[in-house]
Design a protein that fits this description.
The protein is an alpha+beta fold. It is built from two helices and four strands, in the order E-E-E-H-E-H. A hairpin with a 4-residue loop joins strand 2 and strand 3. The longest helix has 13 residues.
Length: 119
Protein backbone atom coordinates (compact mmCIF):
# COMPACT_ATOMS: atom_id res chain seq x y z
CA UNK A 1 0.00 0.00 0.00
CA UNK A 2 1.19 3.54 -0.64
CA UNK A 3 2.37 5.60 2.35
CA UNK A 4 -0.08 8.03 3.95
CA UNK A 5 0.20 11.55 2.49
CA UNK A 6 2.77 13.73 4.24
CA UNK A 7 4.36 10.80 6.07
CA UNK A 8 7.66 9.28 4.92
CA UNK A 9 7.73 5.60 4.07
CA UNK A 10 10.69 3.42 4.99
CA UNK A 11 11.66 0.10 3.46
CA UNK A 12 13.69 -2.76 4.86
CA UNK A 13 17.46 -2.00 4.65
CA UNK A 14 17.05 1.76 4.28
CA UNK A 15 20.03 3.65 5.68
CA UNK A 16 18.81 6.52 7.86
CA UNK A 17 20.31 9.41 9.82
CA UNK A 18 18.90 9.42 13.34
CA UNK A 19 19.19 12.52 15.52
CA UNK A 20 17.76 14.02 18.67
CA UNK A 21 17.54 17.49 17.11
CA UNK A 22 16.31 18.34 13.61
CA UNK A 23 19.06 18.38 11.00
CA UNK A 24 20.15 21.97 10.28
CA UNK A 25 23.20 22.16 8.00
CA UNK A 26 23.08 25.97 8.00
CA UNK A 27 23.37 26.39 11.78
CA UNK A 28 26.38 28.51 12.88
CA UNK A 29 27.36 29.96 16.25
CA UNK A 30 28.44 33.58 16.95
CA UNK A 31 32.02 32.82 15.86
CA UNK A 32 30.91 31.44 12.50
CA UNK A 33 31.62 27.81 13.38
CA UNK A 34 29.17 25.15 12.26
CA UNK A 35 27.02 23.86 15.11
CA UNK A 36 27.27 20.08 15.25
CA UNK A 37 24.66 17.70 16.51
CA UNK A 38 25.63 15.98 19.71
CA UNK A 39 23.33 12.97 19.46
CA UNK A 40 23.21 11.40 16.02
CA UNK A 41 23.92 8.04 14.38
CA UNK A 42 23.46 6.02 11.23
CA UNK A 43 20.90 3.25 11.49
CA UNK A 44 19.49 0.51 9.30
CA UNK A 45 15.72 0.03 9.03
CA UNK A 46 14.82 -3.43 10.26
CA UNK A 47 11.08 -3.21 9.69
CA UNK A 48 8.36 -0.62 10.03
CA UNK A 49 4.67 -0.13 10.55
CA UNK A 50 2.67 3.06 10.08
CA UNK A 51 3.30 3.94 13.74
CA UNK A 52 6.74 2.46 14.53
CA UNK A 53 10.17 2.16 12.98
CA UNK A 54 12.53 -0.64 14.02
CA UNK A 55 16.18 0.33 13.65
CA UNK A 56 19.53 -1.44 13.97
CA UNK A 57 22.38 0.63 15.38
CA UNK A 58 25.93 -0.12 16.43
CA UNK A 59 26.46 1.36 19.86
CA UNK A 60 29.47 -0.36 21.44
CA UNK A 61 29.45 -0.98 25.17
CA UNK A 62 33.25 -0.86 25.36
CA UNK A 63 35.85 1.22 23.54
CA UNK A 64 37.81 -0.50 20.78
CA UNK A 65 41.22 0.31 19.28
CA UNK A 66 39.67 1.77 16.13
CA UNK A 67 37.17 3.98 17.94
CA UNK A 68 38.58 7.34 19.09
CA UNK A 69 37.76 8.29 22.70
CA UNK A 70 35.68 11.29 21.64
CA UNK A 71 33.49 9.13 19.38
CA UNK A 72 33.09 6.47 22.07
CA UNK A 73 31.95 9.14 24.52
CA UNK A 74 29.42 10.48 21.98
CA UNK A 75 28.10 6.98 21.25
CA UNK A 76 27.86 6.20 24.99
CA UNK A 77 25.76 9.34 25.50
CA UNK A 78 23.61 8.38 22.51
CA UNK A 79 23.05 4.94 24.06
CA UNK A 80 21.69 6.68 27.18
CA UNK A 81 19.28 8.98 25.34
CA UNK A 82 18.00 6.38 22.86
CA UNK A 83 15.17 5.11 25.01
CA UNK A 84 11.49 5.25 24.07
CA UNK A 85 10.69 7.59 26.95
CA UNK A 86 13.21 10.20 25.73
CA UNK A 87 10.72 11.79 23.35
CA UNK A 88 10.82 11.93 19.60
CA UNK A 89 13.78 11.53 17.30
CA UNK A 90 14.31 12.85 13.80
CA UNK A 91 14.91 10.38 10.99
CA UNK A 92 16.22 11.29 7.54
CA UNK A 93 16.41 8.64 4.81
CA UNK A 94 19.84 8.54 3.14
CA UNK A 95 19.38 5.63 0.76
CA UNK A 96 18.85 1.91 0.56
CA UNK A 97 21.75 -0.42 1.34
CA UNK A 98 20.79 -2.78 -1.49
CA UNK A 99 21.11 0.04 -4.01
CA UNK A 100 24.33 1.30 -2.41
CA UNK A 101 25.78 -2.23 -2.51
CA UNK A 102 24.88 -2.66 -6.19
CA UNK A 103 26.51 0.66 -7.08
CA UNK A 104 29.65 -0.29 -5.14
CA UNK A 105 29.88 -3.65 -6.91
CA UNK A 106 29.44 -1.98 -10.30
CA UNK A 107 32.16 0.59 -9.61
CA UNK A 108 34.48 -2.04 -8.14
CA UNK A 109 34.14 -4.32 -11.16
CA UNK A 110 34.52 -1.50 -13.73
CA UNK A 111 38.29 -2.07 -13.92
CA UNK A 112 37.63 -5.56 -15.31
CA UNK A 113 35.71 -4.22 -18.32
CA UNK A 114 37.39 -4.47 -21.69
CA UNK A 115 36.60 -0.81 -22.33
CA UNK A 116 38.15 0.34 -19.06
CA UNK A 117 41.39 1.68 -20.64
CA UNK A 118 39.28 3.76 -23.04
CA UNK A 119 37.13 5.22 -20.27
Amino acid sequence: PPPPPGRPFYHENDLVFLSYEPLDVDAFDEEGKRIGQEFHALALVNGSTPETLNLKLYLPAERTQRLPPSQFKRLSMLRKVLVPSAGKFYVQKLGNMITINREFQALYSARELLLCPLL
